[in-house]
Amino acid sequence: MKKLLFPLILLLLGAEASAQQDFFALTGKDTPSIIFNDFRAINTTSGISGETIFTADSSVKIFSQSRNGSVTEDKNSYNHAQSATMAALAYDSSGNNLIYMPMFSSNVYILNTKTKEITLVENNVTRVTSCDINSHITRMATGYDGNIYAINNAGTQFLQISKKNNQYSVVDLGIIKDDTSNGKNSFTTIETGFGGDMVADADNNFYVFSTSGNVFKIVKKELRAQFIGKISGLPENYSVNGSAVNSKGEVVIASAKGAPLYAVDLKTLAAKQLPGDLNLHIYDLASKYFANDKSVTANTGTHLEIYPTKVDEQFITVDGTDKSIKGNLTLNVFDMSGKNVMKYSLTAKDGALYQKIYLNNLVNGAYIVNITEDSGKILLNKKIIITK
User: At a CB cut-off of 8 Å and minimum separation 6, what does 250 contact?
Assistant: First the structure.
């Protein structure tokens, strides 16, 4: 009996560790100014800090994509992987990578959370100067299409960071302008729209949470920022510096001032304090979740996920850690015409399911992944995009 229990315990512990390792914080030292301290995992349900992934003092191995080799950076400059001035972080679940940019630099860094190796992407697209606070990159998130997006303080650069054939490229999508309805709540001014962080939704729109607590919806196709309201329920002078979506679909916000974490309902913008008393100085948050994502099945109460959304390594991961997940399940993949192009059997044991599904025979394009119980009850529908 013990031989059977031991692997099961390891599986459950692994699932719990996985749940804790999909929400990350960029933290700073306890000082009035911005000084980078570390990247760490956070369990937002319990308010417990997890593994420290990378610190200001970590030894680093940096591979330059453009120079195709290892490099040693000048740590007296703003252009290095452990720069003190950092406030932009995103998580790419397809490669377990943290993507970040120093505020005063055009460099993009990709940190492998497993090996701790860093890829440096140097680009001449980003126009950042240390003396121009409007140019500093302070908001970053993974889009539903699998690309990474970043915006500077003034919205004059909307960057898309993409990976193809294991090479990263940076494109400037243009200038984000205020919606005509914004009035005095402008996205482009320091008092109302400055700094903060952003999250993406399942329609590949973005929500910027400014330092002041104002929230703007960014329509990517139109390069337009629409003011949708101000967060309520926060303490006076709470500075909103980090935001990311948790597994419940709530936006979690954090402050650089060492304040508690809050969950924000995106529909009402009402905030509620989360458990825990970490009071970390958080400059940015990152996760693999998206706002308004129906794939986290609130209708069934079952926590079941498929990731990544953008599939460039020929497989997806099915991950569930809920006691209501039982027995035999069926995974179907449909193309956009509704044709079933793949079928796969899954087995959940004691509420734990973690399985990689290879999609070798599917051509590039969009698909719907569907998971059902034996009874035919649908547990999850998820759109993925294959870009092999």
Answer: 263, 264, 265, 266
What per-residue confidence (pLDDT) applies to 21? 64
Q: Which long-range contacts (CB under 8 A, 24 or more apart) does 73-82 make?
A: 73/120, 78/102, 78/104, 78/105, 78/130, 79/105, 79/106, 79/107, 80/107, 81/109, 81/111, 81/118, 81/120, 82/36, 82/56, 82/57, 82/58
- Tell me if 308 sits within 8 A of 367, measured CB to CB: no
DSSP 253-308: EE-TTS---EEE-TTT-BEEEPS-----EEEEEEES--BT-TTS-TTTT--EEEE-
What is the C-alpha R_g of the chain?
21
Record the tokens describing residue 243, joined without a space.
């935001």
| 147: β partners | none
Q: Are strands 177-178 and 224-230 parallel, antiparallel or unpaired?
A: parallel
Cα-Cα end-to-end distance for the chain:
44
The amino acid at 232:
S
101-139 pLDDT tens trace: 999 999 999 999 989 999 999 998 999 988 899 999 999
Half-sphere exposure of 304 (CA within 13 A, CB side): 30
> What CA–CA distance (Å, rounded) separates 232 from 322?
32
* Sign of the dihedral defined by the CA atoms of residues 141, 145, 148, 153, in that order: negative
- Return the number of other C-beta atoms located less than 10 Å from residue 185's C-beta: 23
CA distance 281 to 128: 24
Return the ∠ at Cα 320 (arms to 315 and 326), rounded to 5°. 115
- Residue 217, CA atoms < 13 Å, CB-side half-sphere: 15
Q: Are 35 and 340 in contact (CB under 8 A)?
A: no
Closest C-alpha to 239, from 267, 281, 206, 287: 281
Q: Which residue has the tokens 């399985």?
A: 355
Q: What is the pTM of this model?
A: 0.81
Q: Quick: pLDDT tens for 142-176.
A: 998 889 999 999 999 999 999 888 899 999 999 99
CA distance 297 to 293: 9
